[in-house]
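Researcher: Good morning. I'm working through a list of sequences from a screen, and I'd like to move beyond sequence-only analysis. For each chain I'm collecting a predicted structure so we can compare shapes side by side. This is the next one on the list. No need for commentary yet; just the structure.
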Amino acid sequence: MRRTRSTAALVAAAVVAGGLALASPAYADPTPAGTFRQLVGVGSDTTQDVLNALAGDTVNGKSYATTAVKSASGAGVASYDAIGSGTIQTRSAGPTFTRPNGSGAGRQALSASLDGDKFPNGDGVAITGQVDFARSSSGPTNSGTALTYIPFARDAVGVAVRGSGLDNLSADQLHDIYKAGGVRTLNGQTLHPVLPQANSGTRKFFLAAIGLDSNTVDTSLPTVQENQANAALTQDGTLVPFSVGSWIAQINGVAPDYSKDAVATGAHLASIQLPGDTGATSPVTTVNGKLVPVSGYYENATFGRDVYNVVPTRAVDPTSIFFDKDLYDVFVTSGSHTAGLASDGAEHVISDFGFLNESYNGSVNLAKHAKQGGLENAGANLATPGAPTLKATPGDKSVKLSWSAPNPAPANPVTDYRVTLKDADGAVVATKDVPATTTTYSFTGLALGTYTATVTAANVNGLGTDATWTGPVKYTSTTSAAVATTPYGKAPKVAVTVTDSHGIVPSGTVTVKEGTTVLGTGTLNTSGKATIALSNHLKVATHTLTVSYAGNGKLYSSSATATLKVTKATASISTTAPTSVSHTSQAKVTVKVTATGTTPGGTVKIYEGTKVIATGTLSGGKVTLTLPRLSRGTHTLHAYYAGSATVAAKSGANFTVKST
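Model: Good morning. Structure tokens for this chain:
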């Protein structure tokens, strides 16, 4: 269980309990030779020895097999040293590649393992999937979210010196010594400043602490492998940045010794005047004859530092399809889950190697010392994807999302999509990570309300730009409509019924359209029904009607189609004529044509048998026709209405006129 950092007495006890066996320097890749384990780590030599021990290997002659940290499924850690043979092989069938030396190189190798680039540069080899984590004694170089820096322990950077004139130093003095064209004498001592190798996390951290960087440091200074005093402190006046934890572990005989020869000739850690202090503070003290950390120095914001295990962010995200439970078990403490590296046994080992245990170690919370950064390999493209093209289709207590890939495609291809649903208050209702081959997802069984859905494409660099939909989730309604064939002049009536399967009585308005033309509207009654009367002057034709329900706070809109056939109106004909007329006179006949809802127009003809004897045009529905002189006798006649665009043709009843 994670504790707060150990006290000096507890650290000293852990050192004594851990044994004092000394050995010549040795390189401890996973043992025995040819051993391959699941969780591969490379990088910083500041934490390589303690990670080797936690992996269960032999460090400086002591076997840590019984305290090896493993995941719940038994996956073990393979920690490869920063220095040793020129190349390493981390998988049984994997490529052989250049050994990553230092924090920066370790992060670069992890990055290349993720994006498929070559390591250490374009002349190297592709190492996709060959590295799972990187040991790092410094934070991110590039911005981004691809990598998560999980705090592992608390270390500090001191300055290893040789020469009594360098017992006490300040940050300002160190700045002036290491800057371009820096001073070369101090307290009568000729100075010989040395720096760790270029990829060293200790070098990067130290320069930042004294206000320098790669552009302002004296680039002509000699460099040595970090944390090796024997190689660095070869003469009086020499000084070199040094991990305090590594110094303690070496001097106490816990880690391989690269410094005791220098110590024998006077090398030691200088006391540093910490910013804001009036006196100098030694990074270490002695308890029971062994070095232990000075917590005040380790906790100082300038020279104290977290050291990290760097992992792919998506690999420790339980919602990601790339989630690696084994990696999570070993490295992450979150909620009730405790990292394997945070167990009591692991913390004793961490203390043995000169580091402090902190309550936040194993955290992936950015508010609790974790950090995030972008890929760091030489060919890394840091761009995340653009927004997908998103379409949302609300359904019954559900919403279906469909999308297409971002265009243009990102340099690093899309690997997955993150689909998220939030309620009206912004709380996450559900989230799902799906493979890049999936372009649809449905949220079902939702409560009624307003939701916001996002679909975000991701690649190895992390999540890109959100595609967003916001809208209501309701119940589905069903609209049905019926209308009878109706003659012109009568108002068609559309019977509308709206139903729902959740016991909700539909309410609201319905609208009848033909094309884009609104023909009528109505309001549903308490049974979800409405009858909508249309114009009685719709043209004679077959009409396709769209009947739409507008929906309400609980129901979606819905619609139906109905076919309305408007036929011609039926005419009625009446005639008024004299019963007799002189054969020398012309009789006049008045014809009246009527139809429901309209006044007929058009032509009327008077027939005697099959012969037309008079023709006229209706005006106001009637016409008076003058017949020709009829021969003596009785004539049987009838009127015929020829019809119009809206009224059907019709023959009138026979009538007689007697000519005398």
